[in-house]
Each structure stands twice: as structure tokens, then as C-alpha cells.
Amino acid sequence: MHRLLAGIALVWLAGCADGSGGRPAVDHLPVPQHPFLAPNGRSNMHNDAYMTDTYEIDGPAGKKPIVRLKSYADDINTCVTLAFDRQDRILTTSAVMLAFSILLLDPDSLEVLASYPLPPRDFTDPLFPYDDTSGATYFVLDDQDRVLLADADNALQIIRFDEETGEFEQVKRYDLSDHVVALDSPARDHVQMTIPDWAGERLWFTTRYGMVGTVEPDSGEVHTLELPGEEMQNSFAVGEDGVYIISDHAMYRFSSDPSGTPVVDWRTPYDRGTRIKPSNFNQGSGTTPQLFGELVAIGDNAEPRMNILFLKRSDGSEVCRIPVFADGLSTTENGLPGLVREGSHGLEYSVIVDNNYGIDRNNVLQDGRCWTDHVGGLVRVDAVPDASGNYTCKQVWESAEKSSQVLLKLSLSNGLLYVYTYEQLPDEEYSWYLTAVDFESGETVFSVPTGEGLDYTNFGPPLIIGPDGAAYLGTMGGLLRIQEGPS
User: Quick one: pLDDT at residue 18?
Assistant: First the structure.
């Protein structure tokens, strides 16, 4: 059956299955709230400081979907990170070719309420445009509704929206151009992102080519530690016990000494394979560390199959691992949505893995787009302890759904994993769908058609569930919203 007809059928079935629209919640332990970030689910592209990519609210049910695409330029434009302030307004990084800006959007009309320009990215940089994750691709919203970001000039900025003037204002700016790795032109190091530590005493940051640093907010004093020959392009996680950063060689937990200098608490190397796999930025893990309970989960870059690894947060030791997807056709450049819950012998852990193997970001504007050679697929992996406390990793289910490489999101309230999927059309264009997969079984619950063509194309910007229960994601045509219509 053509995917469009199948999608309509699945939407109809979802609407008929339960007259109330309710679905059972997933049993789980709550995610701790970082005291210096906005509430969980609102603060950054991975939702919280643990980078769980989960929500305590329902997303769309797929019954009476209303789809809207809002554009913010006449040319190609997209919205990357999205966050929501205490008034439920949207804060997003808007990218229009070279130009980046922070937008404040009305949650109902999606109209721009205020805009804050950011330094443009350098088009002579070898990473430009699709291998560069700097320049405010990542930002976090703090507990005062302030945006904390790293801009394309290698500065950390703190900005806020002034309710009286109706404009953004810069609260702080920290120039880090003297604290990056020196490279021969035209190559340059990039400050990737910043997050406050759990005590709110320091801002932590990373750079693409191996610098880890802290900034003391009041004085602006900077302390760094270089990881020579290592590269970091993923966002990082912050817990009560330290800062969790993955490079293309190893997984780390950092703390800081009294001066603020980063200290390696532990370092766990992983199998980085022999090559940069199709869809990856470098020869290493494409995952953001996922914190939960006593463990942290990551993916490696091994051959013939990538592995999902579960490590102890206390010392970085491995408790179990499992290879996923097919030989020679497995990788992810994505987060690992997941949860922890009580089991019969202790805490049990689950993550969802998105197979991105074969996606070519650099071909997004060419014939066939990015997905001609994409393998696709999703798996759920659990780490389960036995009576003696030893863990076993097991694959619970596998789905054939092909994600665009959107950042997946899991609603713990209704048990649905939200994915942006596609079908290639005869003219080599694509039709696009918001697809929901059942967390417990891996079965596809519904698939809502959103549109066809380049304007509806997503190749990485995250899927976000707003406080209104709508799904939002950036496409090449702007900001896409899928929400439930009136019952």
C-alpha cells in the first residue's frame, strides 16, 4: 500500500482504537531537574540536562491532525533548536543561509515577536555548511528564561527578552577566541555549546577540536583543558556528579578543581572503527550521552556493527554492550531517547537507536536528496540486571521505519516515540510524515502526512513537543507544526 494511503488508514485506526484518545503512560523514574535550567522538556534540543529526549506530556495522537508550515524567509530557511519560556513562547535558532538569529515566536500564530541577530558563519570554513554544528545550533534556556549560546565568533552570549522594550538584550558576552585550538587557515576551531554546572557556579563549554573549558560567570575567568587529537561535535550532558562529554575517541566525566580548571574524573575509550561512516561528522560516536539512574549510554563506531554501550556513571566501567542493525550498515548521528525504571532485580534501562547509515547531508539540495542510500530502522535496547547485579543488554524490538535523521522524541505520558519519516516519490522528491511508534512493542501507531518536496524536508533539526502538545520541527521551508484539531 502506498505510504500516504497507509498513513490515512493508520490515523483512522488510531482514532477508532480508543474513544477517549488516552494511551497508557510508560513506567519510569523522573528525570532530575537541573536547578539552573528551564523546566525539563523546555530547556534545550535534548529536553533536559540529562539529555533524555523524553517528555512528561502527550504529543499528538494522530486523530485530527492540523499541519502548518511557517516560513521566515523567501529563500531556504530552517529552525534548529527550540525551547519554550515560562509564557509558552517559542525561542528558536533561525538559519537563513549564512545568517543565524534567535527568534521569539508567538506559540499560536508562529509570528515573530522579536529577533536577535547572531554573527554569520564563515563560508570559507571547510566544515561549512552541513558539517558545522556551531554558531548557536545548540543553545540552552536557563532558569531565568535567558538564552545561553556559543556564536560563530567563538563567544558565549547570554541574552534575554526584555518585556518592557519588547526586544532582546545582551546580558553577558565572553570572548573565547583565545581559548580554542589553533588551526591553519582556512580551518578553525569552533565553540560548540555551553551549559551551567549543577551548582550554577561555572559555565562549561566544548570546542569542535578538543578544548573543554569553564567560565566563571561574574569575572569571566576562563580555564581550559585540551584533549589533543580528539574532536567533539555532539552536545554534552550535565548531572549532579559531573559533566559528561563524548569525543571521537572516548567517553569522559569531568569535574573542576577549585580554580575552575577541568579535571578528568574518568575516561573510557570505545571502538571508533576505521572510517567516517555515511551520515557521521567524524570517525567516532555520533551520540549525545544519555544519563539515567546510575548509568550513561552511548553508541560507538565499531565495525561491522555499531554497539550501544552502558557505562557506570561512578567510574566509567562498562556494564554491558550490544551490536545493532546489519553488518556494514549501522551508525547513528543522533541522541538516544531513553528511560530508567524499577525492575525485579533493580533499575532497568532502555534507549531507542536510530540508524542513519547512508544519509548524505551534503546532497540535501541535489537529485535524490540525502536518503537515496539510507538504510533506516529503529531498535529498542534494554540493559537489565540479574539477581547478582550483573547486566545483560538485549534488543527488545526492531522497526523498519526510516527517520529523516530528525532528533526523535519519546512521550512518557502516552508511550509514543515520535519520528519524522519519508517516502521517495517517482520524481525523486519525497513525501513526509509524522510517525508514532509504540515504545513497548515497536509497532507503528499512526503516520500523518505533512507535505511533499523540499519545503517539508528535515535532515537533522530536532523534533520538539511543545507545552500545547503539538509537534514542532525545522524543515528547509521554516517551522513545521503538527497539532491535534478540536475533538
Answer: 40
